[in-house]
Amino acid sequence: xxxxxxxxxxxxxxxxxxxxxxxxxxxxxxxxxxxxxxxxxxxxxxxxxxxxxxxxxxxxxx
Length: 62
Hints:
This protein has one helix at residues 53-60, and strands at 40-42, 50-52. It is low in regular secondary structure. It has a domain at 35-62. The chain has a two-stranded antiparallel ribbon with strand order 1-2.
């Protein structure tokens, strides 16, 4: 993994897809308001393997 960092700024109600390699991380910051950011993650190798805030809440018991 390199020390390269990219920053993307998105307007409200918009989306962005970003591909991460194994070992890379992403940080999502909501700079306005208190509403949560909807996030979906998919495995590039198997699109039936995914994670979303909506599906993780019941799993975590929150």
